[in-house]
Design a protein that fits this description.
4-stranded antiparallel sheet; rod-shaped; 2 helices; mainly beta; 5-stranded antiparallel sheet
Length: 199
Amino acid sequence: MLYQGQKIKATFTADGGFTVSGITSVEFDGINAAVDEDSKTFGISAKRCDVNRNALTSPPALAVGTTLFICIDSTDVNAVIKSVDTFGATKTSGGALTNLLTGNTEVKGEGTDAVTIGTRPFVQFFADTTPLEIRGTVTLEVTDNGVTRRHLVRILQTGLSEEFELEVELEAVEESSANSAAFSTAAVALSGGIIAAIM
């Protein structure tokens, strides 16, 4: 909207009339209609990456004991990923998820537009080469150049939730190992800290 100020001359007559002079004008540059509402779409992208957040275009099959890195990015500069709310895996397409947030997983970057998740999936997933289906949800928060836009807080009171999903190829362990005490030992060994390597 364009505003301008200028001095004008008003001449009044004895019968109550008046004339105005000295006004200049410019062509209106705007929307000549009432706008009741508008909308904007926010979203995320998720992909396999390395520890430095470089995308893996042809990632190798994940081996037991190897850290899986997943990069989640906001698709809009005015929205940050406030939190990773769910993160799980299943060997059955669309099946119930095993929660990985309670396992050997660490999340970096919450509160920014770029989040990295580092995880070592439970060793039981490696009993065969059926791909691992990774699914999760994040909450987005609308910002304006990094500052939360207070006038949009009402819109996000219930949270702006976005889902992500990707498939991870697996390298199977020896079937004999999968049924042995060594397989269980490997599972315990993975419970140590893994994110010493992350940023």
